[in-house]
Specification:
about 450 residues; TIM Barrel; Lyase, Ornithine Decarboxylase, Chain A, domain 1; 8-stranded parallel sheet; 7-stranded mixed sheet
Length: about 450
């Protein structure tokens, strides 16, 4: 396998049918009747001999000499996005796989639901999923605008998306203006004090990178009050006012019948009139499904990119993106009446077989809402759903595998699925009675992470 970074110079001769996961920088010759499948980009020159076939999921940037073979170029921009992170797989208790192709497909699905620009929210380290691979994949998929939590995150987006517009949601700290200019990021102004700080910086530095104004139209969130928004509105009549975006957020967009959605939309519409000519943004991913009234000039999508259902109660239009597996480190038996360490509330009611998994609350695994809840935590072992026994300890989670038809499925070293087919992110969040964004954001960095595209 060759990759776009660190490949050795020289000629690559394909004399057997080959499947390359990554990009090829070398000049390449595919010999007679051979098949080459490149799940990345071909950056060098390509020669195809008679009867040979070449399939490239990315792009071909060099010269092509076809002597009688076949070339198929799918131009998938994500084909070269394959990254590993965290500890080595053999040393990690858990493996987190993130499907960048599904991420891109979710972005395209959401962008296709509106006629306005679709921006990506990658705050909180892309909801715990990793800013660099996530933002890089989205940039390759056509995303032009990103929203992050703070300046360090803005720098990380800029490293993988050099031409993107980057907004910093937590706004402007005193004296941080030069840092915004250095990374070419735009602060989201949440108070008149921040506005005064930004004005002072732009006046002295002549920086014209722009800012956004965030209006609090709902339930006491971060942002300018409607009265403050009205007071600042006359500045848009001046030349070079520097306001690149006005924005707010729907607090109940996931509840389609909530009257707060209409109240916020109407208030934001009235404020938009005062800022005529300035682009506006209100809707998140659930807000997209409320209809064009909420779309304004830009929508901002976050957790739906990772497969979280933006339409609760309806079929999920998003593809699953994450799979979390963890290793069985020991299998124990518990007699009726026995308890678990660190789990005084759990008592074995029958002869019980427990698989102890190398994941705990230190890895961000959530606690169950309540023992005996109908929405209990589950794990997939050997293709079957098994209940979590009690609460997670710091590094260990107990799974009740008593009813497995094949006990070997829970043997030492076997992998158990905590998020994936049969029990997704929404299922885990429902069982923990916790928002899915919180479940995502807590996923720890002790996992071996695999970012892949197919």
């Amino acid at each position: 396998m060759l990759s776009a970074q660190g490949a050795e110079p020289g000629l690559l001769t394909v004399s057997n049918s080959s499947d390359i996961h990554g990009s090829v920088v070398n000049d390449t010759i595919v010999q007679r009747n051979c098949v080459l499948h490149v799940r990345g980009n071909l950056l060098g020159d390509l020669t195809i001999e008679p009867g040979a076939k070449v399939v490239v999921e990315g792009s071909v940037d060099g010269k092509i000499l076809n002597k009688g073979g076949r070339l198929v170029v799918n131009n998938k921009g994500l084909a070269a996005c394959v990254t590993l992170d965290g500890p080595e797989e053999a040393q990690a208790g858990g493996i987190l796989k993130i499907n960048l192709t599904a991420l891109a497909a979710n972005f395209e699905t959401l962008a296709g639901r509106t006629e306005v620009e679709c921006a990506a929210v990658v705050k909180g380290n892309a909801y715990g999923c990793g800013i660099e691979p996530i933002a890089g994949a989205l940039a390759r998929s056509g995303c032009k605008t990103f929203f992050v939590s703070n300046l360090p995150e803005a720098k990380r987006v800029r490293a993988v998306a050099p031409n993107a517009i980057v907004y910093v949601l937590n706004g402007l700290y005193s004296g941080s203006g030069p840092a915004f200019a250095a990374v070419d990021a735009r602060p989201v102004i949440n108070s008149v004090i921040e506005m005064a700080e930004w004005d002072a910086f732009t006046a002295t530095s002549h920086w014209d990178g722009g800012c956004a104004l965030n209006f609090d139209t709902g339930q006491t969130r971060l942002g300018l009050s409607p009265e403050e928004a009205v007071a600042l509105a006359p500045r848009v009549n001046s030349l070079n006012h520097g306001i690149a975006l006005v924005m707010s957020r729907l607090d109940r967009a996931d509840k389609r019948d909530s009257p707060l959605n209409d109240r916020q939309s109407d208030l934001f519409r009235d404020l938009r009139r005062l800022y005529r000519g300035v682009p506006a943004s209100l809707a998140n991913a659930p807000g997209i499904f409320l209809g064009p009234k909420a779309h304004c000039d830009m929508v901002r999508v976050g957790t739906a990119l990772y497969g979280v259902n933006p339409t609760p109660g309806l079929p999920n239009p998003m593809l699953p993106v994450l799979e979390l597996q963890a290793r069985v480190v020991q299998v124990r038996s518990a007699a009726p009446g026995e308890t678990l360490a660190d789990n005084p509330g759990w008592i074995a009611k029958r002869p019980t077989r427990l698989a102890l998994i190398a994941v705990g609350y230190a890895d961000g695994y959530p606690r169950a809402a309540a023992n005996g809840s109908a929405d209990r935590l589950r794990a997939v072992v050997g293709g079957r759903l098994c209940p979590v026994a009690g609460q997670p300890a710091m590094d260990v989670l107990a799974i009740d595998v008593t009813d497995l038809p094949d006990p070997a499925a829970a043997r030492f070293g076997a992998l158990v699925t905590l998020i994936g087919t049969g029990f997704g992110v929404d299922d885990l969040a429902a069982a923990a009675k916790s928002p899915a964004r919180e479940v995502l954001s807590r996923l720890g960095h002790r996992f071996h992470r695999i970012y892949y595209a197919i």
